[in-house]
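Appendix C reproduces, verbatim, an entry submitted by the partner laboratory led by Prof. M.T., so that reviewers can inspect both the input and the predicted structure.
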Amino acid sequence: MKAKNFALTVLIFSVIFKARREAMAHLTPKETLTRAEEFLQCAEFAVQNDHYNAGAICSYAALFWAARAGLAYEGFDQPTWEHGELRSKFTEELIKNRARYPRNFGTWLVDSFRLRNFAQYHFDSPNMKKIRRMVNHAREVVQKIEEVIN
Protein backbone atom coordinates (compact mmCIF):
# COMPACT_ATOMS: atom_id res chain seq x y z
CA MET A 1 0.00 0.00 0.00
CA LYS A 2 2.82 2.43 0.83
CA ALA A 3 4.43 1.82 -2.57
CA LYS A 4 1.12 2.58 -4.30
CA ASN A 5 0.73 5.81 -2.27
CA PHE A 6 4.28 6.86 -3.08
CA ALA A 7 3.77 6.14 -6.80
CA LEU A 8 0.57 8.21 -6.80
CA THR A 9 2.30 11.07 -4.99
CA VAL A 10 5.21 11.06 -7.42
CA LEU A 11 2.85 10.95 -10.40
CA ILE A 12 0.74 13.85 -9.16
CA PHE A 13 3.66 16.06 -8.22
CA SER A 14 5.47 15.39 -11.47
CA VAL A 15 2.41 16.48 -13.42
CA ILE A 16 1.91 19.56 -11.22
CA PHE A 17 5.51 20.71 -11.48
CA LYS A 18 5.62 20.07 -15.20
CA ALA A 19 2.44 22.11 -15.57
CA ARG A 20 3.92 24.99 -13.60
CA ARG A 21 7.08 25.03 -15.71
CA GLU A 22 5.03 25.09 -18.88
CA ALA A 23 2.49 27.61 -17.62
CA MET A 24 4.74 30.50 -18.58
CA ALA A 25 5.44 29.05 -22.01
CA HIS A 26 3.03 29.51 -24.87
CA LEU A 27 1.09 26.33 -25.39
CA THR A 28 -1.36 25.63 -28.18
CA PRO A 29 -4.93 24.85 -27.15
CA LYS A 30 -4.30 21.16 -27.93
CA GLU A 31 -1.14 21.12 -25.79
CA THR A 32 -3.04 22.80 -22.99
CA LEU A 33 -5.80 20.22 -23.30
CA THR A 34 -3.19 17.47 -23.06
CA ARG A 35 -2.32 18.86 -19.64
CA ALA A 36 -6.01 18.66 -18.68
CA GLU A 37 -6.10 15.03 -19.82
CA GLU A 38 -3.05 14.21 -17.67
CA PHE A 39 -4.68 15.69 -14.58
CA LEU A 40 -7.90 13.84 -15.40
CA GLN A 41 -5.98 10.56 -15.53
CA CYS A 42 -4.42 11.37 -12.15
CA ALA A 43 -7.87 12.16 -10.71
CA GLU A 44 -9.32 8.90 -12.01
CA PHE A 45 -6.37 6.90 -10.68
CA ALA A 46 -6.61 8.60 -7.29
CA VAL A 47 -10.33 7.92 -6.89
CA GLN A 48 -9.98 4.31 -8.07
CA ASN A 49 -7.42 3.85 -5.32
CA ASP A 50 -9.42 5.65 -2.61
CA HIS A 51 -7.19 8.76 -2.56
CA TYR A 52 -10.05 11.23 -2.53
CA ASN A 53 -8.10 14.37 -1.60
CA ALA A 54 -5.79 13.83 -4.56
CA GLY A 55 -8.83 13.11 -6.73
CA ALA A 56 -10.38 16.43 -5.76
CA ILE A 57 -7.19 18.38 -6.41
CA CYS A 58 -6.55 16.73 -9.77
CA SER A 59 -10.16 16.96 -10.98
CA TYR A 60 -10.04 20.72 -10.43
CA ALA A 61 -6.69 20.92 -12.22
CA ALA A 62 -8.19 19.02 -15.15
CA LEU A 63 -11.10 21.47 -15.30
CA PHE A 64 -8.77 24.47 -14.97
CA TRP A 65 -6.54 23.35 -17.83
CA ALA A 66 -9.50 22.34 -19.99
CA ALA A 67 -11.09 25.77 -19.49
CA ARG A 68 -7.75 27.35 -20.29
CA ALA A 69 -7.58 25.33 -23.53
CA GLY A 70 -11.11 26.39 -24.45
CA LEU A 71 -10.28 30.03 -23.82
CA ALA A 72 -7.05 29.84 -25.82
CA TYR A 73 -8.89 28.26 -28.74
CA GLU A 74 -11.33 31.19 -28.75
CA GLY A 75 -8.50 33.75 -28.70
CA PHE A 76 -8.29 34.41 -24.95
CA ASP A 77 -4.71 33.31 -24.58
CA GLN A 78 -2.37 34.60 -21.92
CA PRO A 79 0.71 33.12 -20.25
CA THR A 80 -0.86 32.81 -16.80
CA TRP A 81 -4.35 32.88 -15.31
CA GLU A 82 -5.48 33.51 -11.76
CA HIS A 83 -8.11 30.98 -10.69
CA GLY A 84 -10.95 33.48 -10.29
CA GLU A 85 -10.01 35.29 -13.49
CA LEU A 86 -10.10 32.08 -15.51
CA ARG A 87 -13.43 30.97 -14.04
CA SER A 88 -14.98 34.38 -14.72
CA LYS A 89 -13.67 34.66 -18.27
CA PHE A 90 -14.68 31.10 -19.18
CA THR A 91 -18.19 31.58 -17.79
CA GLU A 92 -18.72 35.06 -19.20
CA GLU A 93 -17.23 34.58 -22.66
CA LEU A 94 -17.62 30.91 -23.54
CA ILE A 95 -20.82 30.05 -21.69
CA LYS A 96 -22.87 33.25 -21.56
CA ASN A 97 -21.70 35.32 -24.55
CA ARG A 98 -20.75 32.66 -27.11
CA ALA A 99 -22.83 29.72 -25.79
CA ARG A 100 -20.04 27.27 -26.64
CA TYR A 101 -20.55 25.20 -23.51
CA PRO A 102 -23.45 24.36 -21.18
CA ARG A 103 -24.05 26.51 -18.09
CA ASN A 104 -23.28 23.64 -15.76
CA PHE A 105 -19.63 23.73 -16.89
CA GLY A 106 -19.22 27.08 -15.13
CA THR A 107 -20.93 25.76 -12.03
CA TRP A 108 -18.67 22.69 -12.01
CA LEU A 109 -15.58 24.88 -12.30
CA VAL A 110 -16.64 26.86 -9.22
CA ASP A 111 -17.72 23.76 -7.27
CA SER A 112 -14.52 21.89 -8.08
CA PHE A 113 -12.41 24.85 -6.93
CA ARG A 114 -14.19 24.78 -3.57
CA LEU A 115 -13.77 21.01 -3.33
CA ARG A 116 -10.10 21.31 -4.25
CA ASN A 117 -9.53 23.95 -1.57
CA PHE A 118 -11.27 21.82 1.03
CA ALA A 119 -9.18 18.78 0.09
CA GLN A 120 -5.95 20.73 0.03
CA TYR A 121 -6.33 22.92 3.11
CA HIS A 122 -8.58 21.06 5.57
CA PHE A 123 -7.80 18.04 7.67
CA ASP A 124 -11.11 16.28 7.00
CA SER A 125 -11.57 14.60 3.65
CA PRO A 126 -14.27 15.91 1.33
CA ASN A 127 -17.30 13.79 0.56
CA MET A 128 -16.30 10.78 -1.57
CA LYS A 129 -19.51 10.89 -3.58
CA LYS A 130 -18.93 14.55 -4.47
CA ILE A 131 -15.38 13.81 -5.56
CA ARG A 132 -16.43 10.89 -7.75
CA ARG A 133 -19.07 13.12 -9.30
CA MET A 134 -16.51 15.88 -9.87
CA VAL A 135 -14.15 13.48 -11.64
CA ASN A 136 -17.04 12.53 -13.93
CA HIS A 137 -17.78 16.20 -14.56
CA ALA A 138 -14.12 16.86 -15.34
CA ARG A 139 -14.16 14.00 -17.84
CA GLU A 140 -17.27 15.45 -19.53
CA VAL A 141 -15.74 18.94 -19.76
CA VAL A 142 -12.43 17.68 -21.13
CA GLN A 143 -14.23 15.59 -23.76
CA LYS A 144 -16.49 18.46 -24.84
CA ILE A 145 -13.62 20.94 -25.12
CA GLU A 146 -11.66 18.34 -27.08
CA GLU A 147 -14.60 18.03 -29.52
CA VAL A 148 -14.68 21.81 -30.02
CA ILE A 149 -10.91 22.15 -30.46
CA ASN A 150 -10.67 19.26 -32.89
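The chain has one domain: 2-149. Additional entries are available on request from the coordinating office.
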